[in-house]
Q: What sequence folds into this?
């Protein structure tokens, strides 16, 4: 049985961990559906991270490791956000894993 | 892996890249190893010799061969604290390339000095 | 400080051996294993190049790989030393690092 999620009436293929199979399938609704499954409500702060990850992937073709993400968010939003605590509060399952999943990215390199 | 590794001995690692990208998996495997290894706070250098210099060639477009264009990721290495990229001068010249053809800033090194660089390392990984 | 360089591709097919020899110093050593053992005997077109290399560098060949390819009874190139698996391990421990030229 293959895995998928339903977003706006479309079946989108995922892997067994829930990551989108095709990056191009992503739309904002994907993040909303995935967040619902995890019982998590997406705020503007969540979206900021998701949008950052999508831009990062577009530019470098990799999902950043958590410490790279943390550093980059700190640079973008200010020092007080550049620590693990802020990101873990938003994404308790792990910022790199959970946020990357919502952003439609593959699992970050280095996450086993 | 969400936790950062701490403690342990810092060693000097050099990744030597010697092959054209896309025809085989060596180039991407090397890059992924570097990115994963970066979580372990080691002293990492990358050296591009022979056909490995093509890995850093600007303007790679893999759309038509339907492969991932991982060349863009070399520009992210700095964020992973991998800042020492060396390219052998002769290898570039033999292939009709110059430093202007590369997608990141690198340090050029003469063939005669490659040995000195390797002599400073604890671990050598060749791809 | 010295490096043990491991070559495992036939120099008749791949340029790995040349690439290695052009970059190592006289304190370094090279061991030919697997398909690379095909240039260990005298009488190949690699003769002169390897003789030059053995003048200031240590060159070894792994006997079990020669035997496997039916080359054990051929005369080895002057200056080349044959080692068994134990000898290979000893070489690894005697050098500061190993560079396996995949």
A:
């Amino acid at each position: 049985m293959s895995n998928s999620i339903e977003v706006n009436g479309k079946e989108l293929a995922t892997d067994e961990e829930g990551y989108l199979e095709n990056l191009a399938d992503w739309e904002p609704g994907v993040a909303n559906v995935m967040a619902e499954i995890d019982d998590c409500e997406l705020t503007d702060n969540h979206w900021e991270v998701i949008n950052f990850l999508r831009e990062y992937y577009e530019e470098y073709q990799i999902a950043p490791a958590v410490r790279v993400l943390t550093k980059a968010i700190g640079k973008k939003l200010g020092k007080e956000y550049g620590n693990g605590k802020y990101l873990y509060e938003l994404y308790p399952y792990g910022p790199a894993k959970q946020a990357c999943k919502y952003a439609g990215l593959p699992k970050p390199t280095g996450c086993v | 892996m969400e936790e950062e590794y701490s403690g342990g001995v810092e060693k000097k690692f050099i990744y030597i890249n010697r092959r054209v990208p896309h025809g085989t998996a060596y180039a991407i495997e090397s890059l992924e190893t570097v990115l994963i290894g970066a979580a372990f706070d080691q002293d990492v250098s990358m050296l591009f010799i022979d056909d490995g210099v093509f890995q850093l060639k600007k303007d790679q477009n893999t759309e038509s061969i339907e492969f991932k264009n991982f060349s863009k990721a070399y520009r992210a290495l700095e964020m992973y604290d991998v800042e020492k990229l060396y390219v052998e001068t002769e290898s570039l010249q033999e292939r009709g390339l110059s430093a202007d053809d590369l997608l990141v800033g690198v340090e050029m090194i003469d063939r005669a000095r490659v040995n000195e660089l390797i002599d400073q390392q604890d671990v050598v990984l060749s791809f | 400080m010295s490096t043990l360089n491991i070559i495992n591709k036939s120099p008749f097919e791949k340029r790995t051996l040349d690439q290695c020899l052009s970059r190592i110093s006289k304190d370094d050593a090279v061991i030919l294993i697997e398909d690379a053992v095909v240039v260990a005997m005298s009488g190949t077109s690699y003769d002169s190049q390897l003789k030059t290399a053995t003048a200031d560098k240590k060159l070894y060949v792994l006997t079990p790989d020669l035997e496997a390819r039916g080359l054990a009874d051929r005369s080895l190139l002057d200056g080349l030393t044959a080692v068994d698996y134990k000898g290979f391990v000893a070489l690894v421990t005697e050098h500061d690092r190993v560079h396996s030229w995949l």
